[in-house]
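Anyone? Bumping this.
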Amino acid sequence: MKTELKINTTEAKQEFEGPVPELNPIMYPQSVAVIGASSAFGKWGQLILTNIVAGGFEGKIFPVNPKDTSLCGLPVYKRISDIPGPVDVAFITIPAGGVPAILEECGRKGVKGVVLITSGFSEIGSDGAALEREITEICKRWNIVLIGPNTMGIISSYAKLFATGTHTRPRPGGVAFVSQSGNLGNQLVHWASQQGIGISQFIGSGNEAMLGCADYLEYLEQDENARIIMLYMENVGDGRRLLSVARRVNQKKPVIVLKGGRTSAGKAAAASHTGSMGGEFLIFRAACSQAGILNVDAPAELLDLSAGFSSLPIPKGDRVGIVTLGGGWGVVTADACNENGLRVPDIPERIVERLNKYLPPFWSKRNPLDLVGTRDTEVPIVAVEELLKWDGIDAVISLGIIGRTELVRLLVNSTRGVDPTASVELLDEIEGFVEKYEETYVATMVDLMEHYQKPVIGVSLTRTDRGTVRAVDGKRYSGVFYQTPETAVNVLARMVDYSRFLNRQGNPSS
Amino acid sequence: MKTELKINTTEAKQEFEGPVPELNPIMYPQSVAVIGASSAFGKWGQLILTNIVAGGFEGKIFPVNPKDTSLCGLPVYKRISDIPGPVDVAFITIPAGGVPAILEECGRKGVKGVVLITSGFSEIGSDGAALEREITEICKRWNIVLIGPNTMGIISSYAKLFATGTHTRPRPGGVAFVSQSGNLGNQLVHWASQQGIGISQFIGSGNEAMLGCADYLEYLEQDENARIIMLYMENVGDGRRLLSVARRVNQKKPVIVLKGGRTSAGKAAAASHTGSMGGEFLIFRAACSQAGILNVDAPAELLDLSAGFSSLPIPKGDRVGIVTLGGGWGVVTADACNENGLRVPDIPERIVERLNKYLPPFWSKRNPLDLVGTRDTEVPIVAVEELLKWDGIDAVISLGIIGRTELVRLLVNSTRGVDPTASVELLDEIEGFVEKYEETYVATMVDLMEHYQKPVIGVSLTRTDRGTVRAVDGKRYSGVFYQTPETAVNVLARMVDYSRFLNRQGNPSS
């Protein structure tokens, strides 16, 4: 199967059309084997097995090793051939030298896919490279789809399959992530989990002996769970094919790329890391830009963009309305908008008059809408909706509502502590109220986005335990609350870029 | 006192030398009055009083209002003149119209300083401006030092005086912060507190009727608790004097400025917020740059820099050593270094040979030092020290040691959950070990910084509950662990800028 792919790529067709890699048996398996399963804390065979079991995988799990009889309460098989019934995917963690023989066994058993965790292949030099060619040939001969070697694992959240060494388990969601660095990838998945960003798949592509980023893109193109795709790449490989595929996929789902090895220092580091020299970054970036593919410079930005792109409607233009409780935050947000090429248009008299009903005479009466610290719970919502209603605005940034809750809690706590006459009921009521208001506010923002098809980006102005993305049951969009205005503005600016790309393609944002 | 200051400023002397504002009675008072004190939850008179009491202020606290007899367990005085004994500082929260009469009372009582929380002065228009002139005259006549009006309060951590509406109480430390926006300022103080950044003073300067940023800089210049100074400004005022003072102060303590109203949108917002148009930003920035004053674009960056400048030795050059557990993070960090003008020099054979003793043959053997996921607890420390020892390196960025602890905990938890044969003692021991190792690691980094006088900047690669700055008892430096490499690199690059400025001044970093 992959041979055909390789042939096509060298012909460098503008629009590649080959068979999509058969990754479903790996990403949505009925049965998995862990070859090299172990009870030794911290060994790969233990990390992977306990993660799959603890993550609640609902298919069959077959630990394989020659010594144990039971692991995690499951029977252990001495050899792959001893496993009763078919095996969709085998996770292999045994030392490199034993891998060829094990792959032959997998082939005879009819295993469809292998995730080869084991390292000691092309990344360690020419001997390893020879071994890597050997195992790739074995897989091709047996029609085994190979991820890795030297991968730190995969996640398929909708299949409840968490097969990485990092025991973090993000909620299912629309963001697919392919990473050439397993370590960086796993850590980013952990950040995603901490921020409430839903992940559909994570694939650590490792040495990419058989499948590379372009192949994974093609697979994710047709997987409905993946709504946006993040790539971390050091080695572009066949750049022409990658860009051709990415260009096509990017018209259906945003593709966001972080290229490691952009500079001489980064390139030197990447060379020692993956054994391959990255291409010229400027050319790469120009090509991406032409293809509408978003490039970012830092891992955290990948996540910031993922949160926005997977949770918000795409804005149709660059005109931003800003709602703030305090003037200073409005100023820095307006500055950030202008510096990122976004406009902050002045508002019509109609909106001023509507808000005059709620606010003291010295409110800003312009965009940013500075609600001068109002404690009215209705007006922050009215202000957002008035802006969304107006056809002079494409997106709203709303500052400080969610963050205020934490500050109210601090105040309630110290009032409890020092005021012996304070009404306990009143304080309880206030705490309950702010919590409930937060929920209502998130749900209202999600409804407003659905109704007006314009994004509302929240800024919490404080670090909260609730994460960046707040999903609302049964809704297409989610509340998004970044900690800082500059993050919200950057994400919005990149969404505007993407919207312009779609428009240039005659493919307006939906 | 302030009259003289004003006259001097209009003469625009290059090096201003006037009397330093007498802020000690406000920042280190023996007794405070809260005029307008209240038990009504959320009113300013309640916010300020409960915060001062709950914050543990050890001097005398006198609530003043005509109605109550007791608040927070303290006797309430009907009039200021009823207070027994002297009052260093009065916090005033009553409506604007009553302020002139109250200030006269304060004057007769001999109150030395007033923090005027009340709004409704120049920020609301010409009537308010007239009232502001009136109250400023009253204060001058009585020799009262006035902060505000329209300020959201002050903090003086070493005096245990927390007198803001936001009940966040950062630990005492070296960072002083003056903000023209109270709302933005208070929120940043809260971030500082969440990140473990020690604050010496916070001053919300409000409308600056009497004292402006230049005055506060002069005060903080001579206050030993303030080791670095952050400014948030929208209105520069007398730019020549400000820059002259800032230039002088910046040679003793770094001054970091965030200017709001840089763009037309931000300027419009700032105008409506403070009633004054900001100067031309490009001129301002060029002047700052000439004076070695660090300019930042975002509030979060103020804090990032504060953490670094207050906790780490200043680097003497731009050569960075990088230590990483995983290659990908080394690549993105090296890229970020090069893109921020920092060098990542290759290491001498001596260091390679030293680390060969600890690591498998396929470790990177270059800078970044990729320790290829080693679980050896000694080698990450050895690697940092070897780099610090070498005179080819000015600073070290160390990635992932602190963050790994959280990932180990996740693994321990799922092992507990799914492996019935796992040794409970072993798992407890592992958890205890990683926790203890983290403490040891932080303490060792602090000792190494003291010994070699070079900064070691940590990157946690995960969001931890422990904050960015980890102080070690009795030590001059603290451990600093940013979540992302790009933050660490940016801070280091700005520290290198500052170091170069000091060198140009013939004032090498200490």
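Late reply, but here is one note on the structure posted above: Chain A touches chain B through 104 residues (CB under 8 Å).
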